[in-house]
Every structure is written in structure tokens, then in C-alpha cells.
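Protocol step 6 of 9: fold each sequence in the batch and record its C-alpha cells directly after the sequence line. For illustration, a two-sequence batch is reproduced in full.

Sequence one:
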Amino acid sequence: MDKFTSRRRATWQSKAPLWPFLLAALLIAAAGGVLISLYASGVILGDGTSGGRALVWVKTLSNIAIPALVIGAAVGGLLNSVFLSPAGRHGALKWSGLLMAVAALGAAPLSVAKGMEADRIGYEMRLKQAVAQARIDARKSETDFYRRLYLLARHQGFGIETLRSADGIKHARETIESNRQLLAAARRDYAAGQAKARAALAGAVVDRADREAVLKRFDAAKVRRDALMDKVWAAHERLIVLDDEEVNLLYANRGHWRPNAWGGGSVDNPRMLDQLRRIGRDRQAARTEHDEVYREVATLDAETNEDIDRAIEIAIRG
């Protein structure tokens, strides 16, 4: 105050122009928005659906708006205390609102980019999980069949020593019947697994065009795969029939063969020996055919997986 009057002495702020201080405040607010957007976290992963995308963008907007409010209020307060109030000028709320908008603009580009990436990554995770589950479902019946067939052959199989025992024929026929039941169950479960796999893909791919592209590849491969699997099952059926024929032949001619020291048997009936050799050749032929066909199945699966993966990648990148 002037010592001779009661009037307040004019401050230097009252004589200075506003624009340098306002420009500095705007730059600070914009820089603060950019800086906060670099380190702001807490994004939500999307899943490709409308609801999931809405959540991502709500979170993205909150990552922009909340820091902008804090930065705008803080810089506006600083502007008011350093310049506006000492200069006796009004408009602190107006300039604070502008500073909030500028801070939001500074935070928006990177925050929006993070939101888009979170939406894409979440959708990618969902698609890849669905594809992985679909492949598990598609092969589950086959995997279970071979695993149980191996365990059955290892623990309840029939060999020369088994057939020579008192209840050997009973165990052998039980094993053969178990094989038949396993094969029948595998064939039933195969169709269910393929349907489940298709449903998993259809439910995961949100975009209609992308979904049709993926399912088109799956359906085209399924036609070929079903035909190949019919050959696989047929080969197993022949092996079961041959096992049954061999057991019946050995049981009906118990006096014409005996176990040897190498885990096999010796046969003293030429006709029976010819029949056993023919069964052995037929069994080897069935196994060879099975292996060749299953290699075709594996090749087809690899090609189908590559086609579906490419379609999924297109769906992700959109």
C-alpha cells in the first residue's frame, strides 16, 4: 500500500499482458497431459464384442478425463496465484476449463492408441484361446482313444502266455470287446468334438465376414478329414477282427502250439501256421494303411491350422 494513502499499490502483473502467462500455462497443461498419458495404466482388455469395446473406451476416456481435470485445476490455480489474482483480473474458472481441455488433448493421442491396442490384444487373446480350445476339442476323442487303447493293451492284452492260462481266452475276448467299445465311443465322440470345435470358433470371431472366412476353412477341411478318419476307424476295425480271428484260431487248436522261450509260440500244424501268417500279413497291412492315412490327417490338420491362423490374423488386424 502507498504510505500516504490507503490505496493498494499497483502490481507489475496489472501492467503485464495476459498472453505470455496464458501461453505458458497452456504449454504446461499440454505437456502434463502428454506426460501422464505415457505412464497412465489400468487399461482394460477388450474381447471384440460391443460390450467389451465399450468398456475399453470408457476406461480410455477416464484415463484422459481424470488426469486432465487434475492438471487443468492445478495449472489454473497456479496461473491464478501467479498472475490473475495479483493483477486483479477475473476468469480463473474460464482459463482453468481451457487448461483442462488442453491437457485432455495432450493426453488423448497416446491414451487412445493404448485403448485401441488393449482392444486388439484382448480380442487376439480371446481368438487364440478359442482356436486352441477348438483344436483340443477336435482331437480329444482320438487322443483319448489311443491313450486308452495303449493302457488296455499294456495291462489287459493277450499274448501266448495269457492264452495258455486257465482263463486266458476269457481275458483275451474281454480285451477285444473293450477295444470294440473304445472304437465305437471314439467314433461317436469324434462327431461331437468336431461340432464343439466349430461352435468354439463361431462364438469367438465377432465380425461376420471374419467368422465366415474361418468357418469356411474349417468346414472345407472337415469334409476331407471325416473321409480320412473313416479310413482310420476302418483300419482299427480290421485289426480288432483279426485279433478276434487269431484268438479263436489259437483257442480252437490248443494242442498244436506251445509257448517258446522268446515270448512267442511254436506251431506244429502247417495249415494253422499258414492261417497265422496270413493274419499277421493282414494285420501289418492294416497297420501300414492306418499309419499312412493318419499321416495324411496330420498333414491336413497342419494345413488347416495355417489357413485358420491366417484368417484369425486378418480378423485381429482388421
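Sequence two, same batch, same settings:
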Amino acid sequence: MITDELRLLPARAAHFIRQHPVPARGAYAPETRLSVLDILVHCAPVRGDAFVAFQLLSRSALPDSYLLRLDVLDDALSALDSLTVTEDECEQAFGPNWEDVVRHAVDAAALVDEQFGALTRTSSAVDGRRRLGAWICARDAASEAGRIRSWYRAQDAAWERHYMDGVTLREDERMRADLATAVRDAAAAHAVSDLVGTHDFTRAHYETLLEPWRLCSPEGASGLPRALHR
């Protein structure tokens, strides 16, 4: 799962920033300022790699706002320069199931970006209360195993809320919320798949979390990437 594109992405982002200096404050509207994530997305040949790399970076001393202002530029560049994408780094960020987490993040980013308008609503796929109960059980299992941070980070890698909100701003709000939940819940399931049968987290909970994402494409589960059939 650690491709050349993912491994080289931090260096590409740092090079881009150095090639395009950040304007002084007041040179343009604050709402147009670029963030570290924006740069990663711009430089990533594989879109999902940007979200994965950003979560790896989140373990470093990134600026609190993540915006590339002059006063935090050196910190952002230092974080990008020092990040080496390795299996150990991914495991530290996402837990022992990091390969499934990364695969889901990449698959979800590609499917949402390329087929968002064709994806079906997912709200009726699984009863909301049952889904929430399964998510809570997964969270408790992650917490009891000492992996709560990596569990949340796995979900953020699959659905980076700030960026996706901007991309899909003019799409149906309920559709976007349903899809976000499906993507998030599948990531939550993958992150603790090895904990099924422990801490009151059952196979039924795991399948409940995966089911909406398996059903969200126009073709059903048969049309989803390989990783989504697990």
C-alpha cells in the first residue's frame, strides 16, 4: 500500500511550497489561503494519498490552523521534510490494520471524486440506531485497546471533512451526510477488524458498519473496489 506516489508526496508538497512563496498578509482574501492539505491534494497523483499523508502529518507539529501563513511556514515545511512514509509510520498512525485503512481511504477518495453524482443514498441501508450502536461498540473496543486516536485518524483519512465540504458544497446536503457516514463507518470497521469478538464488539457490529458503504454505489457491492468486500 505504500506506493512511490505516497512515499514521495511530502517532498513534492514541500517543493511546491518553496517554488510558490506564500504572499504576505493582506495580499489576498483570507478565505483563499491554502492549507497543507490543499497543497497535498494538488501534488498527489492519487487523490486519496493526500488524505493519508495529511493524517500522517497530523502526528507532527503542524500549525494549529493548517493554513500556510508566513509565521507557520517553517513549521509546515519542517513537518513535510521530516516525514518518511513507512510501514511503521502508517501503523503508528492508523493501528495494526493500517493496510486496510489506507486502501479504504484511497478507494473511497477515488469513488467519491469520480462517481459522486451517481452514488445512491445510503440512509436506508442500515437502521440509524443500529449503526450508531455498532459505531459506539467499535469506539469502545478501540478505546479499551488503547487505540482511540488511531481509530479516529483512520476515519479522518477516509473522509477529510473540511476539503470534502468545499468540493460538494452544491450537492444535496442529505446525500452528502449519508455518504460521509458510510465512508466513515467503513473506516471505523476496518480500523478495529482484529478486535471482533473482544470488548463487546461483535461480527454483527462490524458488518453493520460496512453494509452502507458496500451498498452505496449504483452497482451495489459488485461495483466497489476489492477492499470493500471484506
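Proceed to step 7 once all outputs are recorded. Observation for sequence two: The chain has eleven helices and no strands.
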